[in-house]
């Protein structure tokens, strides 16, 4: 009982105020133990009474002692005055250390600016809600075909009709087919972005017309009436915002259309859509035309999984009747996922990189602040000696951190705005048209969070160290030149973290730069320099058939070839780096593909005979066709690429003379292979070549759209004005579009990757500079702390080289540990970037070796400066300093 009672009493002693417990706790426990032993000698009863009295005395006195101390405590300073005093003191401290303060502010400003700019980009892409009611219920509906190597096939209108009739999970469902149309008022013509939509498109998005109405179900049928709904922007620019625009007509693809409604600005999503036309789909159509995208609105409470299951159940009849091989399957994803799928790797890389830069900056500033705190130990000791508490010192140091972070936050925000503008300029043609990079409340909250987070991150360690100041050592004479082992270890750890993160960023940036450099060396399979191009689309009302279309194309080509400086000119339906036009073909005598065999889409292009010479397409076998060759019902020559030849005639060296036809063609209209070209990178240098064919305009019969290319030995942009003039003279109502050079088209295709490469290379350079300054700062601190010791060593005979090796060795050890930790982390980061590495392994030895050598050499250079100061110091002066 004695031991249990004594343990309980000692536990209850903790209820007393801390100062009373420290002063008299042990004495009171000893006194209770003596009284309990004496009572125990008199019997169990007296012992129990003694325990109860002692316990009651503690329970009764503890609250009273706490209250008494609170009453006699010195009045607290008013909070606002104290905070303002802390801020003023912090500013005075900074002005006494202008160089260090400027370096800290510059570091934080860059980190805050980079984070703000990248967050604005990521917020616009991934987080900002779409401008529609309940945007979380909007989903993208589409069909996929793995055998065709297509993630997004598009939607066949008869399939959509079945879904709309038999699903129950959707509040509304609509189809959209983006297009470009020619519009004219009889005087001027332009080409604008439009869309064919089903009648429930506006209701699905949840938008209402500003004026008029949208399409009715009766108007959304085959051969629809000539009606159009225009967008807010077109209403303002072409019609001056007139309220009487409803009922007016203007020409769309040379046909008069009546305006029945005006939609609000947000309806232009997902691009700058200027007008909408009724889709006019036919549920009974016999052909499979996967031309549409789908958008739907879920009913409240319905999940994506439930909606997709409902869609598959509705699609079961299509599997049974039209698609027994289950080649094409519908799916549902969030609407945003459809539009940002190509940006996830880019966004993840930029987001991770900018966070690493922020951490490096915080570690760098934390080491500087911790070194300042060590140098200020004597000051802290004096303040504690005159009554300041550890909490008061912590508040002062955190206030200094907050002041630095606030100043850097303001400067970083301003710099971040410029960074966003630079992003917009560098990302021209990269980001979707619906992305807005203006400020939001969320961006402001993120900026405040970054400022507060950085203040806590780099102010935490110094403030914790301040609470652990030993008063006796802080006031001693040696305190001015000594630092505790934990403090030195903390500084070393911060620098190691900086080197580790810098290694990750440098490896990632280096791999991307090498990959991008390799990508630029890839041959596109055609000529890039000296080629200008533009497109036209002929309205069916004025160019109803192949002969009329061919006649205009030939006249355009004749005039293009007459432009001074043009060496050759040609036309093609789908030139490289611009569009996709594909179908499925089968070889004569070939077996149809098995169900488990890939069945890629073949890229089909109609081109004039001069096209191959104009763009420099290399010929491997056979020859090119001429414009005079081919007929729609007889001999139809084609030129195929090597990928097509390997696909249909594997192992055959020369397939010239072989024949193919379009799959499902019951008229047996065969195409004969006349020549084989090298594979071309039609979709960009970063995309693999795909099977493709070219055929002549005479063989194809006619096409309503063509792109023209003109080759010159000079600057191709000089041809732009002449190109526009040629078309305007032949048909004033026929606008041209996508007037560009082939080099510009390639640059646009590489722009997303170039943006990531440039950003990561920049972030890696910033991290390298911060890591080097971190090594320099810590080694300088070590030299300053050990100046007395080094003076004694030199006085006892240590050579200059030995001192250099001692100091530089400390910096190299930090770099080495950082590299040991950073290289494995960089390997993990590189795996995430593998899709962006063209021809470069994620374990590329040259890149890792370069980063190791770079960090080692810069670490040595950073450590050499303070090492030389230490080695050149006079030993007597160092020994005579306070030790």
Descriptors:
26 helices; 883 residues; eight-stranded mixed β-sheet; alpha+beta
Q: Low-confidence parts lasting 5 or more residues at pLDDT below 50?
A: 477-482
| N- to C-terminal distance | 56 Å
Helix coverage percent:
40-55%
Task: Give average pLDDT, whole number.
Answer: 82
Secondary structure class reads alpha+beta
Main β-sheet description: 8 strands, mixed
* Radius of gyration (Å): 38 Å
Number of strands: 23
Shape: elongated
* Strand residues, percent: 15-25%
Number of helices: 26
Task: Give your account of this protein's structure.
- Helices cover 53% and strands 15% of the residues.
- The chain is elongated.
- The chain contains 26 helices and 23 strands.
- α5 packs antiparallel against α14, α11 packs antiparallel against α16 and α11 (344-375) packs parallel to α22 (742-785).
- The two termini are 56 Å apart.
- β7 and β8 form a beta hairpin.
- Strands 14, 15, 16, 17, 18, 19, 20 and 21 form an eight-stranded mixed beta sheet that branches. A six-stranded mixed β-barrel has the order 3-4-9-6-8-7.
- With 883 residues, it is of the alpha+beta class.
Outline the secondary-structure elements.
Elements: H1 2-12, H2 18-42, H3 44-72, H4 79-96, H5 98-127, E1 138-144, E2 155-156, H6 157-166, E3 170-184, E4 189-197, H7 201-205, E5 211-212, E6 227-231, H8 232-239, E7 249-252, E8 255-263, E9 275-278, E10 290-298, H9 304-321, E11 329-334, H10 335-340, H11 344-375, H12 377-385, H13 390-426, H14 441-467, H15 471-475, H16 485-520, E12 531-537, H17 546-561, E13 566-572, E14 582-583, E15 585-587, E16 602-606, H18 611-615, E17 619-622, E18 637-641, H19 642-648, E19 659-662, E20 671-677, E21 692-695, H20 697-700, E22 705-712, H21 720-730, E23 737-741, H22 742-785, H23 787-795, H24 800-832, H25 845-872, H26 875-880
Parallel strand pairs: 4-9, 6-8, 16-21, 18-20
Antiparallel strand pairs: 1-10, 1-11, 2-10, 3-4, 3-7, 3-10, 5-8, 6-9, 7-8, 12-22, 12-23, 13-22, 14-16, 15-19, 17-20, 18-21, 19-20
Helix pairs in contact: 1-2, 2-3, 4-13, 5-11, 5-13, 5-14, 6-9, 11-14, 11-16, 11-22, 13-14, 16-22, 16-24, 16-25, 17-21, 22-24, 22-25, 24-25
